[in-house]
């Protein structure tokens, strides 16, 4: 899966149904991807189905290869592990890290360390 396909899987599994088409539309167009990345700062957090979250990820999940999306303009940068992406993302605004398997994710809105969300999908 490429970076756009991977984030679309996340959107379909986690974002409330009423907003899924909006976000997949942003991701599907390289011209509009900036709108998706900007939504990572504040908007996306209010449109997530919180029943899909989990309290934490285990060690194996932290070691899986990952892709980073960030409001600073990063769309689909690949890392060797979720942990490596997480360490890099901590200096960014809002961000989303997806395991390449599509089964784990971490989302943090801009400046909201306490609002970090973990997903096992």
Structure notes:
Strand 5 (104-108) and strand 6 form a beta hairpin. The protein has a six-stranded antiparallel sheet with strand order 1-6-5-4-2-3, sandwiched between helices. Helix 1 (3-14) runs antiparallel to helix 2. It is α+β, with helices and mostly antiparallel strands and 121 residues long. It has five helices and six strands; from the N terminus they run H-H-H-E-H-E-E-H-E-E-E. The protein is globular and about 35 Å long.
Question: What's a quick, concise take on this entry?
Answer:
The chain has helices at 3-14, 17-28, 33-39, 59-62, 82-89; strands at 53-54, 66-70, 75-79, 95-99, 104-108, 117-120. The chain is α+β, with helices and mostly antiparallel strands. Helix 1 runs antiparallel to helix 2 (17-28).
Count of individual helical segments: 5
Q: What spatial order of strands do you see in the largest sheet?
A: 1-6-5-4-2-3
* C-alpha termini separation: 16 Å
Q: Please mark out the parts with pLDDT under 50 across 5 or more consecutive residues, or reply none.
A: none
Radius of gyration (CA) equals 13 Å
Q: Could you name the key traits of this structure?
A:
about 120 residues; alpha+beta; six-stranded antiparallel sheet; 5 helices; globular
Compile the SSE list and pairings:
Blueprint: H1 3-14, H2 17-28, H3 33-39, E1 53-54, H4 59-62, E2 66-70, E3 75-79, H5 82-89, E4 95-99, E5 104-108, E6 117-120
Antiparallel strand pairs: 1-6, 2-3, 2-4, 4-5, 5-6
Helix pairs in contact: 1-2, 2-3
